[in-house]
Amino acid sequence: MRVTICIGSACHLKGSREIIQQLQQLVKEHGVSDKVDLNGAFCTGNCVNGVCVTVDGTLYSLSPETTKEFFEKEILGRL
Length: 79
Ligand code: FES
Fold this sequence. Notes:
Layout: E1 2-6, H1 9-13, H2 16-29, E2 37-41, E3 51-55, E4 58-62, H3 67-75
Parallel strand pairs: 1-2
Antiparallel strand pairs: 1-3, 3-4
């Protein structure tokens, strides 16, 4: 599963760094690093939607507060 997190400036201001750290931590905790491929991506033009994260091409809008829930539902839930 390929997960990309936007590291463009607008998303950076909304906490993309923190989201990446949280996701890395969660992936490690759950031992799914061989299944989940975390990547950074540049601005995809969806800045208004907050931190843009894609899972196999599907776009989600995240904030540091919703990252854990997102991980459980959209990542763990689909493995
Ligand atoms: S900075 Fe993330 S979509 Fe533009």
